[in-house]
Amino acid sequence: MHSTARRPSLSDAISGIDRSAPARGTAPRRDTGRAVTSRAVWLGAAGLAATLVIWWVATHAMTAPGSLGRQFAPDSAFASLPSLFSEDHLAEHALVSLRRVGTGLGLALLVGVPLGILIGRVQSLEHTLSPTFQFLRMVSPLSWMPLAVMSFGIGDRAIYFLLGFAALWPVLMSTAAGVAQIDRRWLRLGESLTATRRELLLHIILPAIAGPLLNGIRLAIGILWIVLVPAEMLGVSAGLGYLILDTRDRLAYSELTAVILVIGALGFALDGIARLLARALLRSDR
């Protein structure tokens, strides 16, 4: 009887390699890592507390009680937060802004990841498109506001265009850099196993670029959050940027300062989530 041996697939070959085995001569340092992380958290919290104290001292020392400048003090801002949540529906405005940021990031991923993979794989294409992309990357996304309004009108579509354009470049560049840094021996292994392009993409390229891509997403979130507020001043009736304009027009400067604090807190939280995802992925690859 003749037995036919099954050709090993690319996933079988990759799964057979033990990536989790520790290097020789190295000992686990989990406890040390936890101590460093705990210390960093406490130092960061102390830094934030010191910043609030300095802010409070500066505003109270430079302004008189009941003056306009006193409304920019941190205690005035925190005191106005309950009214913002109840009367101005701050949570709803924040959700609208988060939805716009998510849509802009999704558009950037939809365009930037495939294009970045293509540029990273085809060197002639990189040489052809790199000068154009570097030129466009240096143009402020807010410079496109008149064109966005003329093309898409006032509303969400113009904001999506501006946010997607702003987030595209860190996503595209990090993806292309991640593809360029892939060990060619992995690609040759896949080709020796007659892997299809889809198998190379799923089992080698995407896992290899996950770390750089998450770092690019983190950079994109920071840019998105900066561009969001002025972009939401394009005649929309909801969002944190709209709320900034609304509180300014009502001369409610304590509420305006509170909105600024909320914008900073949400941006900080989004960056922290992206950072945790990147760290978790790097740990899983060890």
Low-confidence stretches: 18-27
User: Fraction of residues in helices?
Assistant: over 70%
Distance between the first and last residues' Cα: 44 Å
Give the helix/strand class.
Answer: mainly alpha
Order of helices and strands: HHHHHHHHHHH
Q: What is the beta-strand fraction?
A: under 5%
Task: From the alpha carbons, calculate the radius of gyration and give it in angstroms.
Answer: 25 Å
- Overall mean pLDDT stands at 78
CATH class: Mainly Alpha
Q: Remind me, CATH topology? A: MetI-like fold
Gross geometry? globular
Main pleated-sheet profile: none
Number of strands: 0
The H-level CATH homologous superfamily, spelled out, is MetI-like
- List the total number of helices: 11
Whole-number total of structural domains: 1
CATH architecture: Orthogonal Bundle
InterPro entries: MetI-like, MetI-like_sf
Main location: membrane
Family: Belongs to the binding-protein-dependent transport system permease family.
Keywords: Cell membrane, Membrane, Transmembrane, Transmembrane helix, Transport
